[in-house]
Amino acid sequence: MDATADPMIRLDRVTKRYDDGTMAVEELSLDVPSGAIAVLVGPSGCGKTTTMRMINRLVEPTSGRILLGGEDVTRADAVRLRRSIGYVIQQVGLFPHQTVQDNVATVPRLLGWDRRRTRERARELLELVGLDPAVHARRYPHQLSGGQRQRVGVARALAADPPVLLMDEPFGAVDPVARDRLQAEFLRLQEQVRKTVVFVTHDVDEAIRLGDRIAVMREGGHLEQYADPATLLSAPATPFVGEFVGAERTLRRLAVLEVDPAALVPWPTVEATTRPDEVRAAFDHAEADWLLVVGDGEPRWLDRSTDAPVSAPVVTAGASLEEALAAYLAQDGPGVVVRDGAGDVLGVLTAGRLLAGARRRGQAAVPAGDAG
Fold this sequence. Notes:
The protein has 372 residues and is an alpha/beta fold. It has two domains: 9-254, 3-Layer(aba) Sandwich (Rossmann fold); 261-358, CBS-domain. It has 15 helices and 17 strands. It has helices spanning 48-55, 78-83, 100-104, 106-110, 115-128, 133-136, 146-158, 176-193, 204-210, 229-234, 239-245, 249-254, 276-286, 321-330, 351-358; strands spanning 9-17, 23-32, 37-41, 63-68, 71-72, 85-89, 164-168, 196-201, 213-218, 222-227, 269-271, 290-294, 300-303, 309-311, 314-316, 335-339, 345-350. The strands form four sheets. It has a six-stranded mixed β-sheet with strand order 6-7-8-3-9-10, sandwiched between helices. Helix 5 crosses helix 7 (146-158). The longest helix is centred in the middle third of the chain and has 18 residues, at 176-193. The chain starts with 8 loop residues before the first strand and ends in a 14-residue tail after the last helix. Mean pLDDT is 84; it is low at 361-372.
């Protein structure tokens, strides 16, 4: 099976029923677009890990089809299939008596790569996940921190450059600080490697931070909603989803909604070299209590009542509303200055526009069970 050209995953009415009659997953249908991160989230026993393990056939589905790159995985050789899919688990599963480099090289060795190519690939991946090969390559797993072991696990999963990566609670066993760093590192890594990722977690905040699409599941493997984070938070499809994402979903939505360029106010500005009489005239002409001082380093606010400049909160276009709110609360002034990548001021996001953005609804929700 070669899904390299288009590693989209499609689950088509997939069901898993165990011999005792227990229904783990029932007629689950969803698509994971090529290069996207799909996060499966839900309470214990909802079938999210079972669903993921059916993709690489560690669990065999009872019925339905699982397509990888358009081919049915149930008709593929299971061993070859697993070697073509990266797999990362919570406890990492590194071989304790092998060095870090040898652990990363596991799959390339099984695929028959020559020693030089295998060694170079292992060292390349250690660098990619933020571990210095000169320092870490010859260490053993017990000599690493929990976060470092997780990084090695990710490197090992990527060693043969698989088009698909399955991740089962990969950051759940590390402390909150390390978990935050690993999540940020994973997003950075995904920007470079662009794998099709199925990620299992019980943590809603982790799902919102990492997922391009999020599947909320409930007991028995029922799909309640499959949508992008903003839609999930703005328009829960069912009461179960609303309760699961929590009453804090309005605040969580700030992290996934970007500053809307159409909401920016074109604020009156003066140059840092403007004479005091011209500044007063500018205040009067604009009928404003604040002017934005530009052209001399960072933008500053100028208060009519004090004539004293103060630092202006600044974010870059594409920033989240959460970042904008944090910047606004940290500084004085009537709003947040938004600049483009070149540093030019695009406009100001006022407190009122910021609040309106926070109330903005996402796109239409994807109904439960929709494969799109």
